[in-house]
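testing teh design pipeline on a random one, pls ignore if ur not involved
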């Protein structure tokens, strides 16, 4: 049985994916703790606030549409480390087109943290291609 902290970390992951699939930038940023750091395609991106994340995410829908994206599915999510205020979640994620076909599958590690009573994703490192 998973601990309540592990479950809270997974809940934060699911909240982000739900917001991402609706292209709801506010819901996505609510699932974060800040500063939020992302490592993808060999580059670090740091978002110091929800406002900064929102500003930098305005072209997200266009970018996803250009690659044929319809939705994202978490194929697996395993808590690999957990503590009182931090949970590491190793995942395999698939981006799918409108036909439900996977066109991009990648591994990713997310770290959920507890800040001021809020569990949120604070770090994402993806092998996104």
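output:
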């Amino acid at each position: 049985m998973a601990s309540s902290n592990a479950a809270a970390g997974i809940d934060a992951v699911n909240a982000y994916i739900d917001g991402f699939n609706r292209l709801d930038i506010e819901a996505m940023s609510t699932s974060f703790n800040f500063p939020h750091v992302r490592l993808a395609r060999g580059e670090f991106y740091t978002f110091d606030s929800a406002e900064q994340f929102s500003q930098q995410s305005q072209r997200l829908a266009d970018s996803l549409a250009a690659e044929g994206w319809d939705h994202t599915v978490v194929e697996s999510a395993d808590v690999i480390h957990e503590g009182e205020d931090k949970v590491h979640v190793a995942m395999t994620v698939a981006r799918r087109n409108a036909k439900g076909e996977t066109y991009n599958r990648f591994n990713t590690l997310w770290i959920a943290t507890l800040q001021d009573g809020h569990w949120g994703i604070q770090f994402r490192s993806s092998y996104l291609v």
